[in-house]
Amino acid sequence: METAKLRNLIKLALLFAICMVLSLALAACSFGASGGKDDTEGENDTAGGKDSDKTENGSEDGDQSDDSQGGSSAEGGEDEGSSADGSDDSENGDSACAEHSDADLNGYCDECKARVEVVYDGTLTLIKDGKPTFGIVIGTGVGVNYSAAVRLADAINSRISSGKVVAANQNKAVEKPIEILIGTVTERGERYNIDMYSLGYEGYIIEIVDSKLIVLGGSEDALTAAMTDLCEKVFGITDPEKTEKIENLKITESIDKRQRDFEAKSFTVAGKPIESYSIAANAADSYAYEAAKEARELIYRKTGKRLAIKSLGDVADEGSYISFAVVENGGENSTPEGFCAAVTEEGNLIIECEFPDKFDDCVAEVWDSIFANSEISLAAGWQFKKNIRTVYYSEFGAVGDGVADDYTALRNTHDYANRWGHKVSAEPGKTYRIAYAPSSITVRTDTDFCGSTILIDDTGIAWNDKTSRSVWVFNIASSSYLNGASVTVPTGMTVSRGQTNIGMTFDEPCMLKLESSSEKIFIRYGNNANSGNNKQEYILVNEAGDVDPSTPIMYDYATITSIVRYKINDDPISIGNGTVITVAPDPKAQNPEYDNNYCYFNRGFYIGRSNTTLYNITHKVEGEDMTVEQDRNGDGVVDLYGDDKSYGVPYKGTFNFNYCYNVRFIDSVVEGHQAYSFWQNNGASTSRNEMGSYAITANYCIGLVFEGISQYENAESGEVITNRKMYHGVMSSNFCRNFTVTDCYLDRFDAHTGLYNATLTDSTFGFGILVIGAGELYIENVVRPSGDFFIHLRNDYNSTFDGKITIKNCEAGSSVKCVLMGIWNRHYSGLPNRTVRELEIDGLIAESGSLCLFNIKNAAPSALADEVNPLYLPDSVKARRVLCADGVTPLIPTLSKYSDVFAEIDADIE
């Protein structure tokens, strides 16, 4: 008996081992049957692995986890309407199980893994006697599927008498004989894995398959619609507030709403249907990859065709594709506008963009263009181009009504444009008011004001608000942090006049400031007297440190204490095409009485970037209408202090050019600021000091050009300036080299300190030409309508010009009595007291009946013998064709009333 038992146990063990082998084999087959979907269904291999973006139903593409393949047993549970077929699927022909059990509802026996064929008559009983017979299975992902399932379960649980509907992820058993499968469910076998994209973007189904009720939408929106139908048409739940119970419920019909009508009836590229294409994008390029996914979504929505996304490398040899790429500096199909979509000769649709931040907008527009018609046919050579290099003030919240303060919107616009290299555009007809600027609006890209107005409203800024009054509204800045960077100076470094190499090397050509703090030059005498500037000059050098011949070293330096470098290779940009209005503070509201720290307003444009052009700008001034009472001295200068206590504020310059190379200001109109004076407290007494108020200033520039600039007393009426001292401060400059002024009408050209080389042509200067400096001053076709002198060698800097002055084909008004006026030997300016080295006149017509070459007011023969500050006379003087206006009476040029001082001048006068 014991032997028989032993034999039976051995037989059972062998049978169990056979069943285990069969079970493992069937499990492997089952796993293969329920594997991943085809690429066209969203499981897309990319360069970075599987496409893990959310699909339309909220699932994660590529989520193929299959934790239930080993089977998850469900204890209890009802099995209404289901029966095993009893077939013997075992290898030896013997039935492994008396009755198959499929508690996990995966279509296979839980014990022997035999296929369980369940036959339903097309009717599912979902609720019986107030108790649910089903569970809810949630497809891949946790998006709309999960939320929809939970809402459905909550709604049904509130309407049944007993039991509870459970919603679980697809790899969990729900312990019910019937399941409602929501979304793409891969864990239940391939026979329930319906291609959601075949439904179309607006399509959905509620379909009975065996013991399953499948709810699937072609998109998230469609699945939401399907769930609404499920609640209303299947469960009869239309009002969530109702509480009546559902005792029994069956479903016998499917709801099928497949989308067969699409907006695009056909879509071909180079003659090939769109479904034959794949989409290519580099998964590592987030901008291009997102654009690729959006394109796939749009094509599917419009055509019902779902394309696979693949890596750029995978599609190269696989036929036709649509590619997306961010291409720095443009690709083979890009345009100067920065964006292009094109069909190549090979039939591929290539979409390229230079600016990642604009990719989404441009891709959206190209698809809008493509889907404009229902019959889409893109031929080889088709192109779509768009200028994406421009951003607009309105995109960042600018109102432009002249009332709102648009400072923040304009600053944000330019910050964004600077980051990506975009152009900036205003909108025509707008007025952008800037009332307060805590910091400058930095401009590093092309800016087109498009005929709009920039209103710089200074009415709320007090004279003693040193912070606000010193903030330039626009700072046109270099792109490099090296701009204005100090250079390490070798110990004991000296530099000599005319030296051709600086003895240093650089990574690129640049502008250098050479400075010695131990020596002073351009010491000023008289009003606004000062102790001078550190000896300094600005030169151009190449990488090897060679000095550019156009900017030779002018001075000897016993010790160089500082060298600063400025960038000259910035990309060219332009700013302009609009109106700038400065609204000055109310003079009566300003009261800086006897304040020795009283100084200029710096509000406007600071141009510190090389290779910049300002163009087509009209500048107007409001709030500076001087009254007769304010002009108490009758000289056209407003008194800030006096018996009438009238006040005002001087301006440093609406357009201020500094530390830059190759900059142009062209085709513009400027309205001059009024000049002011104030009474300075000197302790025991007060003195009246004049303060010029400027529209344009230029400092430390090389190669600055003014062309087509006109100054008006009133830009509205077009009234021009002649010799109105109250507006004398339109332009001043310091330490500029190679300055050009052509085709201009200005009150004056004024070089305070350090001018080296200037060319003035085809222009009119109402108040005068005031210079000191060196090099060559070339003047041709210039009109000087009034004043005592044609050129004033500034006496407050000791009237020094160490170089040549050429006057050719010019005109002087009737009040002009001399060609050059200066007051020599007045004080030591820090430089040798030299008059012009050479003076050459070839054509000068004057209305005056007499005209002298030099008017020396303060010199005497003793000046030549002054050992401390000797006067150096011109090396040569040449004058021809100096005539009266009628061309008849010749003028007799004389030197001055101190003619004996100039007895040794080599003068060649015709």
Question: Describe it for me?
Answer:
The protein is mainly beta and 910 residues long. Helices cover 12% and strands 34% of the residues. It has 7 helices and 57 strands. The strands form 9 sheets. It has a 28-stranded mixed sheet that branches. The chain has a 6-stranded mixed sheet with strand order 6-5-7-9-8-11, covered by helices on one side. Strands 15-14-16-18-17-20 form a 6-stranded mixed sheet. A hairpin with a 5-residue loop joins strand 17 and strand 18 (349-353). Helix 2 packs parallel to helix 3 (220-234) and helix 4 packs parallel to helix 6 (359-370). The N and C termini lie far apart (154 Å).
User: How does the overall form come out from the CA principal axes?
Assistant: elongated
Cα separation of the termini:
154 Å
| Helix run count | 7
The quaternary structure here is single chain
Biggest β-sheet strands, sense, barrel: 28 strands, mixed
Number of strands: 57
Radius of gyration: 44 Å
Low-confidence stretches: 1-95, 627-632, 639-646
In percent terms, what proportion of residues is strand? Answer: 25-35%
Summed over residues and divided by their number, the pLDDT gives a mean of 79
Approximate helicity band: 10-25%
Category from helices, strands and their pairing: mainly beta
